[in-house]
Amino acid sequence: MRRFQRSVEGPPAKEARSRSDALLSGSSSSSSAGHIAISRAYEPGRPGRTFDFRLRMALQAYVFLFPSLLGLVLFLLLPVFVVAGLSFFDWGLLSQPRFIGLQNYISLFQNPVVWRSLGVSVYFVLLNIPLQTLLALLLAIFMNKRLPGLGIYRTLFAVPWMATPVAMGIVWQWIFDPQFGALNNFLLLLGIHGPQWLVSQQWALPSIVIVTLWQNVGYTMLFFLAGLQSIPEHLYEAAYIDGATPFQSFFKVTLPLLNPTMFFVLVTNIIGSFQLFDTVYTMTKGGPAGSTNVLNFYIFQQAFQFFHAGYASALSMVLFAILMFVTLLLALYFHKRTTYDLS
Fold first, then answer.
1. Rounded Cα–Cα distance for residues 228 and 139 (Å)
2. Is residue 233 a contact partner of residue 195, using CB atoms and an 8 Å limit?
């Protein structure tokens, strides 16, 4: 049989087989050479092609980022520079701006109303931030449990943040009414005579704090909830094996690993608290006797009621400097206390 096969395969058949083998070997060598060429195009040792590839990727990234960067420049950076420039002018909105140098800053530092408004803002922040952070963290711990119906409760707690502050201010103004309000009538059923909430210098600012807590605690709770759910479960298991109590696990595992979330929450809430305006404008108009006249509301008064736009711009720059200083202090505090990699 082998002899018959050899006799059938003459010189032409052998030549064709050798050609096919050569083509197959050539194709495999060419494919491997192409693979080597492609891999060399992106290897770190070839700076020219690597630079072109990185440049194309960077240009594509900036094309997609351009709308956001444009909004950032037009609506954030540019207004800051405009306000900084206006702070050196005397401008009544309708008149021609007149350059006066540092006179606006000298006047505001000599004005006792400015210092009182700044004190009211600081007092509001000291009341609002600890309570809001603590309540939001406690709610997040409760919402992190595996209980039925938690999705509904999470939504209900976040709904007040989506409400319009002006509309809610009007509703809360009726609730705090000392004579016909729902809160005092409810306290009266318990035998408690409620205070004169919004017309009392002692209770007006705490009333604003209550409204702010009602509106923002649920929203802050969502950030803490996301931070709690990002903590690996095996860390708690290791702490339990080592004999740690739930109280010790909270302070040794949960709180340290919540530092990134805590930093974000504190920075954004402090900035928002210093920028309080709409609730004060709706409920108290800065009264009674200036007890709720926070610095941001005083800036609004100077700019749009008394038409001192240059002076209001100087006040805005002072508030901007205070917020930058507080943010820098928080960044320095959390810098070495924050862990981002939990793998």
1. 11
2. no
Helix axis angle, 165-175 to 182-189, nearest 10°:
40
* Predicted pLDDT of residue 342: 59
Beta-carbon contacts of residue 101 (< 8 Å; ≥ 6 apart): 88
The confidence score (pLDDT) of residue 302 equals 95
**Distance in angstroms (rounded) separating the CA atoms of residues 50 and 68:** 28
Backbone angles phi, psi at 148, to 5 degrees: -70, 140
List pLDDT tens digits, range 127-175.
Answer: 999 999 999 999 999 888 877 777 787 788 888 888 888 889 999 999 9
Strands of the chain (E only): list them: 89-90, 98-99
Beta bridge partners of 89: 99
pLDDT above 90 for 307: yes
* In contact, 89 and 314? CB cutoff 8 Å: no
Residue 90 pairs with which residues in a beta bridge?
Answer: 98
In eight-state DSSP terms, residue 99 is: E
Residue 306, helix vs strand vs coil: coil
Q: Tell me how far apart the alpha carbons of residues 106 and 101 are, in angstroms, rounded to a whole number.
A: 10
Contacts of 229 (CB under 8 A, 6+ apart): 144
- pLDDT at position 343 is 57
Q: Are 299 and 319 in contact (CB under 8 A)?
A: yes
Question: 321 vs 292, 313, 328, CA distance in Å?
Answer: 22, 12, 10
- pLDDT category, 339, cuts 50, 70, 90? low
- The C-alpha atoms of residue 268 and residue 296 are separated, in whole angstroms, by 16
pLDDT digits (tens, 9 = 90+) for 67-95: 999 999 999 899 999 999 999 999 988 88
Per-residue confidence (pLDDT) for residue 291, from 0 to 100: 94
Look-up of token digits 């005083």: 298
- What's the length of the chain? 343
* C-alpha span between 68 and 309 (Å, rounded): 29
Q: What pLDDT does 64 receive?
A: 92
